[in-house]
Amino acid sequence: MDYKKVKIGLIGLGTVGCGVVKVLADFPEVEIKKIAVKNINKKRNIENLDISLLTDNPFDIVNDPEIDIVVEVIGGIEPAYDLLVAAVNNGKHIVTANKELLAKKGEPLFKLAKEKNTAILYEAAIAGGIPIIMPIKTTLAANKINEIEAILNGTTNYILTKMEKDGVSYEEVLKEAQELGYAETDPTGDVEGFDSAYKIATLATIALNKRVDINKIYREGITKISVDDMRFAKELGYKIKLVALAKTLEDGRVDVRVHPMLVHVKNCLASINGVTNSVVLEGFPVGRVMMAGPGAGEFPTASSVVGDILAIQRSIGENKLLPMMECHHHINAQQVDIKDTVNKYYISLTAVNTPGVIGALGEVFGRHNISLASVLQKGIGKENTAQIVIITENSKEDNILTAINELENNKNIVKINNYIRVLE
Amino acid sequence: MDYKKVKIGLIGLGTVGCGVVKVLADFPEVEIKKIAVKNINKKRNIENLDISLLTDNPFDIVNDPEIDIVVEVIGGIEPAYDLLVAAVNNGKHIVTANKELLAKKGEPLFKLAKEKNTAILYEAAIAGGIPIIMPIKTTLAANKINEIEAILNGTTNYILTKMEKDGVSYEEVLKEAQELGYAETDPTGDVEGFDSAYKIATLATIALNKRVDINKIYREGITKISVDDMRFAKELGYKIKLVALAKTLEDGRVDVRVHPMLVHVKNCLASINGVTNSVVLEGFPVGRVMMAGPGAGEFPTASSVVGDILAIQRSIGENKLLPMMECHHHINAQQVDIKDTVNKYYISLTAVNTPGVIGALGEVFGRHNISLASVLQKGIGKENTAQIVIITENSKEDNILTAINELENNKNIVKINNYIRVLE
């Protein structure tokens, strides 16, 4: 079959942009007409790059009447948002890998695209090379998805895997990851969970079919995970992962959050190591489905970007463009506050090593309606203190916080070292 | 958006057919106009089934001018093939879960559908509820996929998981599986690998982009796996799985086969337990991607069938129907004979317990160009015999068979118990 040839304009020629150019070399049906870059003279990691394609004015692309698809791989809100609004207003289709933009400006952008009858595809923005958005919108279209458990950030998963394997501290692994280029000089976006939160905001919106507000997503990073936490988790049969969660509760409210969790080794997310990402979906009628693969990198991301370009290219000329890929989530999710969520918890604390301490702990938790699944003394510390690790049964976060607050003021408790939610 | 309502005719009302009827109850845009069954009076597991829809003549469906989509869930070649040919000739789109039909009659059927400009979708035929065909054709369209490793049959994976966990024999677990309804009275189709072979034939055709001939797929079932094999595999860090493999070799030939393998615990397929299926794809640019989920069952299968129905329903009225989903694999794969494949092997044998036996084994294997990764004596058997387990390095199957044949005639070798290929 002879497909219509499409012309694309590429905004951004960093790692992903270079990957897109290289992969498109095998697809003569897609012509790169222009590439917008910050610095035209910068040396690029592409053989035989046609310098005449480069422009330092991205509006050359969004205003070019010959360009059918604008591919945006610069990231961030400005100038990406203004550029994409201009592109859609000019009737162009969009392929983007910009998770922050989708999370913060997805609603007005999709609304505009619907008015203008153009497509916005963004497979690369969520979980890199793993097919997830298209499957949810097509193969799984018959499903009511009610739960997502996911590892959506490769940098933090690399750090946590390495901490567990080598028994070294967060700071030490971060430094090494930065030297290897797996973590950025300012790692905040990754290690504080912003990147995962952007991704789960969009993924939850699509999968749970209600618009999730990024500002209402509880977010907690991995910087407080200690060598002890890693060791205790391992002994108890868990791995520590930065998990992005989303679920629809029975009352219709939606619980979306990003934070570290002790993941039981029987849960398939526990075996996702290194920079790999994974998404587990649960819904009816399908049941539980898992996808895993490379969540970032030049070529895996380019795989999804070019997949989206080809999807548009092969649909151009239709009356309805990619009819299943429309975004129409006008209903805003009613998001649950973290205090109202129910979880199992790992709590690590240092107590005075006297008889009756465990009894006292039991009394405090019991008074706050918290059942304990296990209480383990993990050895004697300095100055006659005892390390104690507790795993609770399902408990309301609010009650846990009150109990912890009370314990912090208890004369027998030296320190609450950490508390981490648990995923069985 | 208001979609066009479509009318479907359902051929078959067994487990999957009932699931499709139940799931479609939530999709008013799809009307079930007729359902063909063998016995109209049979009691069905569906509440409020409209008996007036039933017919015992499936040609009522394929010849009904009002029906847009024929959904075939009866399985087997006859009468399914004749029915679908008639349906396509009448301009109808097809959704099928029939892996045997696709493997044996896919080529003429897709050719006819192309002539008649109708769609044939079959997500449910491969790996049940797991999205795999649509992702390969859309999100992963930029990839050259060169390898598939998959577990595609739930019954055998259930049996092998149970054998490993409980340390019991194949016969014992099969009996239990039959009682529980996980295995059929005549289990041949599953346990001898036919079902997996049908699925990998179609999956490899799509993913490797060359038509794979089902008759040239090497196939070996799980009936010879012993309790000892399970135990030795476990001790060596492997699980035994019925693996469906497909890869493109450097010379362009294609290696497609189904047989048990010792899968190293570090390979993610090793952790696929029970009736779950999994597909691992490796390609460029994406790298390695894995999908896992329920491979069979009323609702997971219905999820994929209804996903396909909705994909067609939402595309009807387009000039080009589902342009990315066409099948055009006119190039026949040149398939490698199993004798010419290269694998690592697990070999279990019983030898006379005399000094020098391991030296003699080494000599035979060495003479046939087979390097041994490990040789382990696993205890002394009856009548002064020794159980020996060997793991080889990569070796040509032909050489392995010759060496095994020679060992069978060696006076120090009592018996070659089994040999199983190894997947690291």
What's the end-to-end separation of chain A, in Å? 50 Å
- Most extensive chain interface and residues per partner: A-B, 54 and 53 residues
User: How many strand segments of chain A?
Assistant: 17
SSE order of chain A in H/E notation? EHEEHEHEHEHEHHHHEHEEEEHEHEEEHE
Superfamily (CATH H level) name of the largest domain in chain A: Dihydrodipicolinate Reductase, domain 2
Report the mean per-residue pLDDT of chain A as an integer.
94
CATH architecture of the largest domain in chain A: 2-Layer Sandwich
Oligomer: homodimer
Approximate shape of chain A: elongated
Percent helix of chain A: 25-40%
Low-pLDDT parts of chain A are none
* Number of structural domains of chain A: 3
Gyration radius of chain A, in Å: 24 Å
Largest sheet of chain A: 11 strands, mixed
CATH fold type of the largest domain in chain A: Dihydrodipicolinate Reductase, domain 2
The CATH top-level class label of the largest domain in chain A? Alpha Beta
Helix segment tally of chain A: 13
**What is the percentage of strand-forming residues of chain A?**
25-35%
Tell me the structural class of chain A: alpha/beta
